[in-house]
Amino acid sequence: MENMIVNRIVALLIGYACGLFLSGYAYSKSKKKDITKMGSGNAGTTNTFRIFGWKGGLITLIGDVSKPIVAILVTWLIFHNSSYETVRESVRLLEFYAGFGCILGHNFPFYMKFKGGKGIACTGGLVIAFCPIEVPISLGIFVLTVAITKYVSLGSILGVISFFIQTVVFGELGIINLSPQYKLEIYIVAGIIMVMAIVRHRANIGRLLNGTENKFSFSKQKDGEKEGK
Asked: How much is the pTM?
């Protein structure tokens, strides 16, 4: 019997490797700038949008959403035809680990001293690839929250919380095809992803409570202008 611990590690590493490509950082370098030294210093979609406008933000969003989709696809290709029944039954679990690894790679890239993004777009890609039925509610909550409050951070936090809740609810209802022996493990990993996203937004939460959080705007931020972190 193949070692499932090894398979989990392989899936995580596949995801981590995919997550290392920071779309926002790469886009800023193509403009001979460094996104990590501009705006909030974050290499994610929101900061890239604020600095480089809708084009840079859209390219970053597509790139970051695509990473977990690629990681999950590669993991599926490697494991789905295994001759071992236990491995075939665990493919969904391994796909989830690949998505989790991608978020880790995005948030903690080793070549940037483990200072990356916040993983929201990557989590969105995980949802699209692993359980697309969750997309309408999570995306709807995000869009509605940002439209009403203009706070991307609040929309991101509520969106990722809804991802965790839906994963548990749909898993228990049998809507998500999960093997019973791995269902609890997937819930735990989903919970870790949610908590990690909230922790990554701790500075934003502080500013939200103080009423000093930056509101979303379609206008580009002036070069060199720094936000509060």
From this structure: 0.89
What would the two tokens of residue 87 be? 């491995």
pLDDT of residue 102: 98
β-strand partners of 39: 226
For 17-46, letters b (16+ CB in 10 Å) and e give bbbbbbbbbebbeeeeeebbebbbebbbbb
Does 194 score more than 80 pLDDT?
yes
Q: Give the confidence band of 168 by pLDDT, cuts at 50, 70, 90.
A: very high
CB-based contacts of 150-155 (< 8 A; 24+ apart in sequence)? 150/215, 150/216, 150/217, 151/208, 151/213, 151/215, 151/216, 152/46, 152/216, 153/201, 153/204, 153/205, 153/207, 153/208, 153/213, 154/204, 154/208, 154/213
Q: Is residue 185 exposed (0-12), middle (13-18) or buried (19+ Cβ within 10 Å)?
A: middle
What are the Cα distances from residue 33, in Å, to 2, 29, 202, 228?
A: 47, 5, 27, 20
CA pair distance 197, 193, nearest whole angstrom: 6
**Would you state the pLDDT for residue 229?**
36
| Residues 146-180 as b or e (16 or more Cβ within 10 Å = b) | beebebbbbbbbbbbebbbebbbebbeeeebebee
- The neighbouring-strand residues paired with 226 are 39
Q: What is the mean pLDDT of the chain?
A: 90
Output Rg (C-alpha) for the chain, integer angstroms.
Answer: 18
Tell me the pLDDT tens digit for each residue of 58-78: 999 999 999 999 999 999 999
